[in-house]
Inverse folding.
């Protein structure tokens, strides 16, 4: 099971990140916490639903370039 995690204070304290809705910020952190050691995960929709975020939150993370969608999985 993946155990390494890296949350960057530079990212989390940036205006770009803090200007996003709290649901989008929470989704980003939950995606990171559930990703494997290389930053990939294949259950992003489950995590989105689990924390009460929506498709718009997920799309905002992609458009802001915080995550990359590979269609089969995502990287954070």
């Amino acid at each position: 099971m993946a155990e390494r995690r890296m949350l960057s204070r530079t990212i989390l304290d940036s205006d770009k990140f803090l200007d996003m809705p709290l649901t989008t910020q929470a989704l980003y952190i939950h995606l990171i916490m559930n990703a494997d050691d290389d930053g990939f995960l294949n259950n992003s929709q489950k995590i989105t639903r689990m924390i009460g975020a929506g498709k718009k939150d997920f799309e905002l993370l992609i458009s802001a370039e915080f995550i990359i969608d590979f269609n089969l999985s995502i990287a954070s």
Remarks:
- The two ends are 17 Å apart (CA to CA).
- Residues 9-75 form one domain.
